[in-house]
# Entry
Amino acid sequence: MDESRKQFEKWVTKDVSSEIHKEIILNIGWNDDYSHNPTRIQWQAWQASRQSQQVVAYLTHQGSAVSPDDFEGGEAEMHETSKREEWMPLVKKGE
# Structure
């Protein structure tokens, strides 16, 4: 499973406490797509958003915006830290 799909599945089930409900939401059908229609639509939107937008900064849990200039390691360190800290991406629409 690719990293984007792992992130999507974590996000789409973040508020689901029932394991049975999680299984329904994440069930993959015969065509390697989600059987649950709302999940399939959310997955398509997730993929499209990753293709058309570029993350230029992140919003921390404290409400501060951080950009590559705030990290010694630049953009790579910013993305790595944001993933670990689960910050919200701030994006610029694709060209």
Notes: The chain has a mean pLDDT of 86. The longest strand covers residues 53-59. Residues 53-93 form one domain. Residues 29 and 35 are 5 Å apart (CA to CA).
